Structures are given as C-alpha cells and as structure tokens.
C-alpha cells in the first residue's frame, strides 16, 4: 500500500496549479496519440504542476503505466531511450521546417530556428541517454 501524500497548505494559487496540471495532462495524452506531437514533456510539466497543486493528482499521474515510468525516469536523471531522442529531434526539425514558411518576418524565422536548435541541443546533448 502506497503512502498517502500530504495535503498541501491551502494557497490562492492551488486552483491554478491544478488547472495547469489538467491542461498539461491533456496535451500529454494528445501527444501519445498524435504522430509528431511529443507527449513526455507535457506529462513532466503536468507532474510538476500537480506537485504544487495537489499531490494526490501527482500520485495518480505517476501511477499511469507508461506515463509514470517516463516521469520517474526523468526525475531520477535516467534520461530518454536513444530511439526516443532520435524521434524527438526529428519531430523538432520537421516541425520547424514545415512552419518556417508561415512566419512572415525574417527575424521571427531566425528566432524560430534558434528555438528548434535549442530543443535539439537540449535533447541530444543535455538529456542523458537511457540504456
């Protein structure tokens, strides 16, 4: 039997953290079914929001079969499987390439490419590879 998490002290921000957690969880589940839309990052952010809003919802999210393992691996510093890193980097490159033409201003295009490069850099070089 798992221990019951402590209830957080009531704050005015608690409902906002909970709402953010639910929105991020929804985006995460969309990422599980939509190709090219990563879900892991949304679940990690949702767990962080739930941790500040209500630990019961955080525990629920961590108990999900696939999702809970991804969040636990990230929190423990175990990183991502190599295949997932490749898929994430390719998705970023494809998303940036397809959306670049829709940005009418050159400065916006440059910023968008830099954001994409930062994402690839973080995943490829800063995120540990899980063996």
Automatic annotation (TrEMBL):
Coiled-coil regions listed in the entry: none
Transmembrane segments: 20-51, 82-100, 106-125
Entries under InterPro entries matching the protein: DUF454
Entry keyword set: Membrane, Transmembrane, Transmembrane helix
UniProt name for this protein: DUF454 domain-containing protein
Organism listed in the record: Deinococcus xinjiangensis
